[in-house]
Design brief:
Order of helices and strands: HEHHEHEHEEHEEHEEEHHHEEHEEEH
Radius of gyration: 21 Å
Strand content: 5-15%
Bound molecules: D-malate
Number of strands: 15
Shape: globular
Amino acid sequence: MAYVNDHYLKLKAGYLFPEIGRRVKKFSEEHPDAKIIRLGIGDVTEPLPAAVREAMHAAVDEMGQRETFRGYGPEQGYDFLRNAIAVNDFQSRGANVAADEIFVSDGSKCDTGNILDIFGLDNVIAVTDPVYPVYVDTNVMIGRTGNADEAGRYAGLVYLPVTAENNFTPALPTQKVDLIYLCYPNNPTGTVASRETLQQWVDYARKNDAIIFFDAAYEAFITDPAIPHSIYEIDGARECAIEFRSFSKTAGFTGTRCAFTVVPKGLKAKSATGEAIDLFALWTRRHTTKFNGVSYVIQKGAEAVYSPAGKQQVQELVAFYLENARILREELTKLGLKVYGGVNAPYVWLKTPGSLTSWEFFDSLLSKAHVVGTPGSGFGASGEGYFRLSAFNSRANVEEAVKRIQGALS
Ligand code: MLT
């Protein structure tokens, strides 16, 4: 018999969202008439912007003509998209990122896991707690942790609590760590990091020869002009950070799939022999070996996000979800709940009422209001007693969910 990767056996039963899916499926089988509103997984509901669809239609027609048909594209992405990203997402904000430092991919979830391929197993990893579960699970899978304890914390990882007590701002690690995951605007808490906070992280990383994995998948939801959108807006970040971005939440691409990762040239980590190695070269090798590029049609759709019409339509889409977040935030606050996030992010993070655990509140909302959220404890031990609601849904569903939650809590 062949051997399995034993590290997978350390993983907790199921990835959070499939586990929620199983519970919701069971509930709806038992209550077939219940009209369930899903504010759990952050999956978009509104249609793709018109500019994106038009660009995709035109690209499909190009693929139908011998003269304009395309087979394999460059694994790192077509220049037209990489240029548009570099100019609009970075250079326009004063961030020094060149088009050829951008690697187009099919998702930030995949990229934040895949990036581990180019880092040694001896690195000490720091994650915030609660955290997007993919960061932890992919490190478990690759063998960088021991087993989980009762609360779900894996041996070998450095957890940095983010709770109301520290205003959702993690303290810098007190020990030396090598790789640090930061996600801003934050999933799951919906909070943001100021320029000063990010500068402290960059300074820590440079001082400790650490690398920051900066997940900026939700940057389009930043409404406060003082909050940086990219880690590269911070002095020194090119020497210590890799950034992950996505079209999923910005432009409704969760089903369409297009994202990108920035690896600055000159960013280095060391080999077992102590030699400084260029991460750009390693990631290029990894990406071009294991990935064959995002399809031309989808990349043309992504490029259209940066056209004048595309920009306008994406702004409207983001504003639509932010208005949902406002409704959730304000209405739930009126009910006496302690509510965080939801101003510069599409997630609202709330303290569960009374002494309910996150899963008890999940079950209670599902059974009494037929509303699905995400238990905070599913994002980490320090998420216990918290609950996440996603603003990704129709206006009618968000308003109805609020009414039902009011009913369930009164
Ligand atoms: C979430 O709900 O946390 C996100 O949808 C997960 C993801 O983007 O993979």
